[in-house]
Amino acid sequence: MPLVEPPPPLGPYNPEDPFWQEVDATMERARVAAGARFIITLNREEYERACAELELSPMTDEGCFSPEMRRGPSGPPDLNFVETISWRLAQARHNGITRELREERRQLSEELARRFPHGMSRRHYEEYCADVGIQPAPDEAIRGMAAEYLAREEIEDLPDFNLFVANFRDKGIRTGGKAPITYHYRYTGTPDVQGDAQQGTGQ
């Protein structure tokens, strides 16, 4: 059943306002149709089912994830009732895309950590950049890029992919592509470098 515009809201969100009551009821209807536990995060199939239930045209994932979508108006007075519902559903899809990309990034991070446990050599870095279609940065810029990545990671869901890859090259520069030397201490207190052929007694 298509949506019908209720009377305009009396002001900002108020659960006692008939306009906002209709918004909440419509979003709950969309949630049930989508088969989602919550309406704030939707995968693509759930989003399309919710739009179909309300006879709304679904946006593309590119549209849902666009900067314009995030920075644009989210409700009255800039948007009417139907536009408000459309925006909320698109925002839920935006959240779903973010969750999916975050999981992909986590899996990729684990994969690269397995492939390059001591970081990327220059050759590995350039080959990987070619494989994923990004421009490799000169080593002189890597340390700054890695620092920027770590700083952004504190406040962003998905820091820039170039910075993400540069972080693995930075580790390779710092370790020289080799496992760090570890020391084991016997009860005698003598340091024993792992991998040494001769084992000292400390005497």
Structural class: mainly alpha
Number of separate helices = 8
Largest sheet geometry: 2 strands, antiparallel
Poorly predicted ranges (pLDDT <50, ≥5 residues)?
195-203
* Spatial ordering of strands, largest sheet: 1-2
Written as H for each helix and E for each strand, in order along the chain, the element string is: HHHHHHHHEE
- Beta-strand residue percentage: under 5%
What would you report as the Rg, rounded to the nearest angstrom? Answer: 26 Å
- For the termini, the CA-CA separation is 88 Å
- Residue share in helix: 55-70%
Number of strands: 2
Apparent shape: elongated
Q: Average pLDDT, to the nearest integer?
A: 87
Describe what is shown at a glance.
This protein is an all-alpha fold and 203 residues long.
What descriptive keywords fit this protein?
203 residues; mainly alpha; two-stranded antiparallel ribbon; 56% helix; elongated
Describe this protein's structure.
This protein is mostly helical and 203 residues long. 56% of the residues lie in helices and 3% in strands. The protein has 8 helices and 2 strands; from the N terminus they run H-H-H-H-H-H-H-H-E-E. It has helices at residues 18-34, 44-54, 61-64, 67-71, 81-115, 122-132, 139-153, 161-175, and strands at 183-185, 191-193. Strands 1-2 form a two-stranded antiparallel ribbon. Strand 1 (183-185) and strand 2 form a beta hairpin. The chain is elongated, with a radius of gyration of 26 Å. The N and C termini lie far apart (88 Å).
